[in-house]
Amino acid sequence: MVTSFVILIIGFAALVWSADRFVYGAAALAKNMGIPTLIIGLTVVAMGSSAPEMMVSASAALADKTDTAVGNAVGSNITNILLVLGLTALLRPLSVSSTTLKREMPLVLLVSIAAWYIFSDNYFSFAEGVALLIAFIVFIAGLIIISLRAKNQAADPFVSEACDDVPSGVSTKSALVWLIIGMVLLPVSSHFLVESAVDIAQYFGLSDLVIGLTIIAIGTSLPELAACIAGVLKNEDDLALGNIVGSNIFNILAVLPLAGIINPSIIDPSAANRDALVMLGATIALIAMSLNFKGSRRINRVEGGLLLIAFIAYQSYIFSQIG
Length: 323
Known about the structure:
The chain has helices at about 1-30, 35-45, 50-60, 65-90, 100-120, 125-150, 155-165, 170-205, 210-220, 220-235, 235-260, 270-290, 300-320, and strands at about 95, 125, 265, 300. It is mostly helical. The longest helix has about 35 residues, at about 170-205. The chain is globular, with a radius of gyration of 19 Å.
């Protein structure tokens, strides 16, 4: 069991690092090929923080652990709002001013409802996975078109930050090296991570869904936590919120579909009856706190504390149901 924990920790570290290198190499290569910075920023770079979830879900689905893949996507969304955003707001209250965020917050609620609907019959089909993936492509295309038509793209912190993260001055050779390293390490690290997580789950009597909702979801949300803390320390509140909102949309539309496409199967009823409802509640709380309906558009420390308490209560409830 100690070995499994060590492999799990190393797997998380390798997964996050290789995802970062993959995105770095892919973005640099795309830039060298003449692709506009805005498009790279809103596709390759914006998807970077969801790369660990995508690889873990794919590996879990290939290992016939669809519940783990589903738990990873849903659990990551819950963790992003309740834990990551809660800790970030405790560090410093967050203001909301990005027009992109205001536009995407209703969308994150819509896709969360769609996920609950998909889970409601306790079966995740291939067609449902494809539908979500098509919705993701439409979302990305729409975001790019809206951003290209905007009179002042730099006025939106979320868009400008995504573009700023596109590397420049990187040779094509170096970009290819990092891209290949990322492509090799991503599936390898995710495979060992899932295998070690399954071993730990079996040892403690955890279901496939619970291991995805807890250990894996928290681990794959570490990049979002780092990005959010970095954002508030640089007084870039919209960057912090943008990472949460963008990542949650990507988790439903790009990460979750992999489970249905790769391994359509029956899923744990708790995914719809408990976890998707918690995800919906957390999303509604995020929207209410962000918009506030009073003009202040601010997430304060008290609200951050409430989010964190909700996360602890949720995790405690899950583990209280074991056995």
